[in-house]
Design goal:
Layout lengths: L1 E6 L7 H17 L4 E3 L13 H4 L9 H10 L2 E3 L1 E5 L4 E7 L7 E4 L20 E3 L2 E7 L6 H9 L4 E5 L4 H17 L3 E5 L2 E4 L2 E4 L3 E3 L5 E4 L6 E6 L1
Parallel strand pairs: 1-2, 2-3, 8-9, 9-10
Antiparallel strand pairs: 1-15, 4-5, 5-6, 7-8, 10-13, 11-12, 13-14
Length: 232
């Protein structure tokens, strides 16, 4: 199967423009015959924790329906990053739009200490099957935590999707960690990072794909938008 990682720059707070931008990249992924497209952390709003309360969306927000329509019409799974409001507070989330199926949502479980003033953690794993593959998402900081990696492996995961928003310092750490765990845990690891300025840092791109032997197959550069196609 082919999975597309959309390394994009989001416009801070402009959900309407960002939705259009997501769809244009989803169309490119479909042209490449990808079965799924994954976006960076909080891609629909840009990674802006201080604005999360203002920008948070309901899981059933009508603005999101267009992703389900695109998935249904093009037979592709679409996974944007979204701040989602529940009764308990605001979560960092990935919404998974699968063709002709109920949308799924994954709430980031392990928050960085800087995120606690703005978000609450989720409390359960999410995974899904595509053919013979079991796919589990992770969102940024938690993807570097061994307990999250091992919990995914315990569920039979062979494709670990890390949706992130990382500076160069974070990317340097991630490259070493993902090369190690992909081999040790026998999981394909796909990391989708952003580019452009957000919060108080610049997204360092370099989205990448490591196979089950820890081999870095493909990666993008650190400054430009792009589409990485990981064939598994």
């Amino acid at each position: 199967m082919k999975i597309a990682l959309a390394q994009i720059e989001s416009i801070t707070g402009d959900i309407t423009a960002n939705i259009k931008h997501h769809l244009s990249w989803a169309q490119k992924a479909k042209t490449e015959n990808a079965s799924m497209i994954v976006f960076p952390e909080l891609s629909l709003t840009a990674y802006e924790p201080k604005l999360a309360d203002e920008l948070a969306m309901d899981i059933r927000d009508e603005r999101l329906n267009i992703f389900q329509e695109f998935a249904d019409q093009n037979d592709i799974i679409v996974c944007p990053g979204v701040p989602v409001r529940t009764e308990d507070g605001v979560h960092i989330a990935m919404i998974i739009f699968r063709p002709l199926e109920e949308r799924m949502v994954y709430f980031k479980q392990i928050l960085h200490e800087d995120e606690f003033p703005y978000f609450i953690p989720g409390n359960k794993e999410v995974s899904w099957k595509v053919g013979n593959h079991t796919i589990t998402p992770a969102i940024c900081y938690e993807s570097l935590q061994r307990q999250h990696n091992e919990a995914a492996k315990d569920k039979g995961t062979d494709i670990y999707l890390a949706s992130v928003a990382k500076s160069q310092k974070g990317i340097d750490k991630a490259y070493g960690h993902f090369a190690s765990i992909s081999k040790q845990l026998q999981m394909n690891v796909l990391m989708c990072n952003n580019v452009g300025f957000c919060d108080d840092f610049t997204g360092a791109g370099q989205s990448a794909f490591w196979d089950v032997n820890g081999l870095l197959h493909r990666n993008l550069n650190g400054t430009a938008e792009g589409l990485l196609i990981a064939e598994i």
